[in-house]
Design a protein that fits this description.
By secondary structure, the chain is α+β, with helices and mostly antiparallel strands. The protein folds into 5 domains: 1-141, Immunoglobulin-like; 145-280, Chondroitinase Ac, Chain A, domain 3 (Sandwich); 294-317 and 340-499, no CATH class; 541-686, Jelly Rolls (Sandwich), CATH 2.60.120.380; 688-831, Sandwich (Jelly Rolls), CATH 2.60.120.380. The protein contains 8 helices and 52 strands. The strands form 9 sheets. Strands 15, 16, 17, 18, 19, 20, 21, 22, 23, 24, 25 and 26 form a 12-stranded antiparallel β-sheet that branches. Strands 28, 29, 31, 32, 33, 35, 37, 39, 40 and 42 form a 10-stranded mixed β-sheet that branches. It is globular, with a radius of gyration of 32 Å. The protein starts with 7 loop residues before the first strand and ends with a strand.
């Protein structure tokens, strides 16, 4: 049979018909009435260059990424439109970094329209560049678009539950308050407009596109992602990144925290219509330039980092100006206090606006008060000029000087704004306070109080009109927010300029970032890669811990960042933290048994005392300080094996014969200093597997660590002695070479005052059993660590064998009244 059979397939993204010939099998496409013609409003235009760029445009969030036709595409000054099959060719593309602009806003179907994207491509002269990876464009469903209120908070939510919290007047387009529509589209992780840097491979948890592309949030807004979309179990802190349409790179824009409602941004946020993606938490690490006068480079970088800190201190805007809210209240109050009926009508009409206005004014006034310390920022800028004015980074100073001048000009604008309008905002806030009784209790407005209400209304109107040349007080505030954002960006650019150079792109290969906790030591350690290091914070419940610090350290160069207490590291009013390797590490030799003392200052808040010891020895560390500090025992691998604010003991030293005590002065301010004394006292005891290790926890601040080396895949039994009728006296937790706690895989019960637990070891390296006393208890501890296998476990469970080197007792019996996890605590296991 040789008849022609035609089969039609309608694609939502194309709104086109595909036809297949039953005879030849040939495929053809025909645009329907809904498919825009493949023409470009800009015109198919050959650019001024010599390169040819071709690729395919596909829908990011529709099915199998269907091709999209009829979309205008520009790269540099070359332009075209995608064909029905999504293909496109751009001719005459100029060489260099060119911005790729894809505008699908005019390509609509019954259910919605396409969005816009902007990215950057690096083009070589004369090349024929075929983009192996499709360019992905979001499809914006009509149902997902939401109008933004100008006078109330608005939550814009995607179908998957990803939500933006937009304050009144918080959305802007072309600098004007916008009612939207605004949408959030969740995109598969592998369909960002262009490929992400390789270091993000396999680490992207979620991707969201905020549309329209010209949307701006002058004060970044909060983004919440449902926990159901975050596959990363056990992590509670994350980084939010944005694709930078101007540079082509990515920027860390927020830290996000897991809460009951989901993963929510707390430091930084969403800045407008862009693409955003979540990863595990990373810290930016910056170091001085690696050539020239190293001391001058260090001082220059430190001054630039201090400047950025000071800028963030005053750049604490949490709400944008709500122009519509104040304008409507002013309009309602103008001349309306003449009669009781009019006054009551005013209160009824503007009652819902009053609370919003009060919240906004409190933020406006708070920012202006904060900026009374603007001179501190100017002083810090002078510090940069002094430290960086003589070629400290061994570079052309033209850019650095221009950044300093730009920053100085911006600070002058901010200072003029504050001097001109701060008192006016105080007057406006006082006028709003005078109206408070009437808005809180409308019944207060009577014929007798009408004159007072009229005076209060007139006072507000007068204060509202007292912001020339601005038509609204909010315009003055918005200009201040804008210039402060520019100050922050300039200060950040300045820091990047003095921390990077040719041959040093910011990658600090010898540095690590560590989380160090009192009573534990290192709980997480990560190498710095391309200027960033991944790190997790908090306990298992996601709570930041007051007895933990975070620092970056390069022991080969004797450089470190300021040790920061974890609870103060993530500040909701600041951008994500930057750790600068701008502090010197003071190195010394420590003679065992000889007490030593030292002084730490802000420029050198870390001291390192090196000493030698024999393998499998036990050492006792004594430490005291005049302020907030920790001391930690560090092995050759750089892991802090145990840390504390006082004395502690470490048994069964492993990992070499060279060790160090490091002292960390926490959050030390300029002009402050910390004094300390320390000593280390080794014993001659040598310990081995199957031998019980004993010690005393006679001080409530004392902790102990029992060390042992093991290979990945091995199984060990840990026995803790001393379970008595009065309950547990101490607890322990096993930590691996990466600092993370190792969970037990088997509980063998308690018998005769001995608690036995099994652990499978995930990594090769040095393990730590951290022992700490319960409050009010001062026990002796006894720990036995034995190698084991699954077969050994079964054998000894049947035979009731006794502990020996390389073996261990196992009992399935339990002491009366004890459950298998009867002594378990949030911090580990008990005995």
């Amino acid at each position: 049979m040789n008849d022609l059979r035609r089969f039609a397939v309608v694609g939502l993204a194309l709104a086109a018909v595909a036809t297949i010939s039953g005879c030849s099998g040939g495929l053809g496409t025909t645009a329907t009435d809904e498919q825009p013609a493949a023409t470009n409003p800009l015109g198919d235009r050959t650019g001024s260059g010599t390169a040819r760029v071709s690729g395919t445009l596909r829908a990011a969030n529709i099915g199998d990424a269907l091709p999209v036709g009829g979309v205008p595409i520009a790269l540099g000054d070359a332009a075209t439109a995608s064909n029905v099959d999504g293909s496109f060719v751009l001719l005459g593309v100029p060489a260099g970094r060119q911005q790729l602009i894809v505008d699908g806003s005019a390509v609509a179907t019954r259910d919605g329209h396409y969005g816009e994207i902007a990215a950057v491509l690096e083009i070589a002269a004369g090349e024929d560049l075929r983009l192996d990876r499709p360019v992905y464009l979001p499809f914006v469903t009509t149902a997902s678009e939401q109008v933004v209120a100008l006078d109330a908070w608005t939550t814009v939510t995607s179908a998957e539950g990803v939500a933006l919290e937009i304050p009144p007047g918080g959305a802007r387009q072309a600098g004007v308050e916008s009612e939207g529509p605004v949408s959030v589209q969740v995109i598969p992780a592998d369909r960002t407009p262009v490929a992400l840097p390789e270091r993000f491979a396999g680490r992207v948890l979620t991707v969201a596109s905020i549309q329209p592309a010209d949307l701006d949030f002058p004060v970044p807004v909060t983004l919440t992602t449902p926990s159901s979309l975050i596959a990363e179990e056990g992590r509670n802190f994350f980084s939010l990144w944005s694709l930078n349409a101007k540079s082509g790179g990515v920027n860390q824009v927020a830290v996000a925290v897991r809460e009951d409602a989901g993963v929510r941004t707390v430091a930084g946020g969403v800045g407008g219509g862009r693409w955003y993606f979540l990863t595990d938490l990373e810290f930016a690490v910056r170091s001085p330039c690696q050539f020239g006068d190293s001391q001058a480079a260090l001082e220059c970088s430190a001054a630039a980092l201090h400047l950025l800190d000071e800028v963030q201190e005053v750049n604490a805007a949490r709400l944008p100006g709500a122009r519509t809210v104040l304008g409507r209240i002013a309009a309602a109050l103008a001349g309306r206090g003449r009669t009781l009926a009019r006054g009551q009508a005013v209160l009824e009409i503007s009652a819902g606006l009053y609370d919003v206005a009060v919240e906004g004014l409190a933020e406006y006034q708070g920012l202006y008060r904060q900026l009374e310390d603007l001179e501190t920022v100017s002083f810090s800028l002078m510090g940069v000029r002094d430290a960086c004015g003589f070629g400290g980074c061994g570079r052309d100073q033209t850019l650095l000087l221009s950044l300093q001048e730009e920053l100085s000009t911006q600070l002058d604008i901010a200072r003029d704004n504050v001097e001109t309008f701060s008192w006016r905002f105080n007057r406006l806030n006082a006028a709003m306070t005078a109206l408070k009784p009437y808005y809180e209790s409308p019944d207060v407005l009577t014929a007798e109080t009408l004159p007072d209400f009229g005076s209060a209304a007139a006072g507000f109107t007068e204060a509202y009109d007292g912001f020339p040349p601005y038509a609204s007080p909010v315009d003055a505030y918005d200009d201040l927010v804008e210039v402060l954002a520019a100050v922050r960006d300039t200060a950040l650019t300045l820091l990047e300029d003095v921390s990077t150079s040719a041959g040093n792109t910011g990658q600090v290969t010898a540095a690590v970032v560590q989380r160090v906790c009192a009573g534990l030591g290192t709980t997480h350690l990560a190498a710095v890669d391309q200027g960033y290091a991944g790190l997790d914070l908090g306990n298992s419940a996601g709570q930041l811990m007051d007895d933990c610090i975070v620092l970056a350290i390069d022991r080969s160069a004797d450089l470190a960042s300021t040790p920061r207490r974890e609870t103060g590291l993530i500040d909701p009013l600041r951008s994500p933290p930057i750790l600068g390797l701008t502090c010197l590490v003071e190195s010394n030799l420590l003679q065992p048994g000889v007490p030593m003392s030292g002084v730490l200052i802000a420029e050198s808040p870390v001291a390192r005392w090196e000493f030698g010891a024999q393998q499998r020895q036990t050492i006792q560390v004594a430490f005291s300080s005049s302020g907030d500090a920790l001391v930690g025992l560090v092995g050759a691998d750089g892991v802090v094996q145990l840390a504390g604010s006082g004395s502690f003991e470490v048994a069964n030293l492993s990992g070499g014969t060279s060790f160090a005590l490091e002292v960390y002065a926490i959050d030390l301010h300029p002009d402050d200093e910390l004094t300390y004394t320390l000593s280390v006292n080794p014993t001659s005891a040598a310990l081995d597997y199957g031998v019980t290790i004993t010690g005393s926890l006679s001080d409530p601040s004392l902790a102990a660590a029992v060390l042992f080396s093991a290979n990945a895949g091995e199984r060990v039994l840990i026995e803790s002695h001393g379970v008595g009728v009065f309950g547990a006296a101490y607890r322990y937790a096993l930590h691996g070479p990466d600092g993370r706690e190792v969970p037990q895989v088997g509980y063998q019960g308690e018998l005769g005052g001995v608690s036995s637990e099994l652990f499978d070891l995930p990594l090769t390296g040095l393990y730590r059993v951290i022992v700490t006393p319960f409050p009010g208890r001062f026990p002796n501890y006894e720990i036995t660590i034995s190698r084991a296998s699954a077969a050994d476990v079964l054998s000894h469970a049947r035979e009731g064998g006794n502990a020996a080197a390389g073996a261990f007792p196992v009992s399935v019996c339990r002491a009366a009244g004890f459950s298998p996890r009867g002594f378990a605590t949030a911090g580990g296991h008990s005995a």
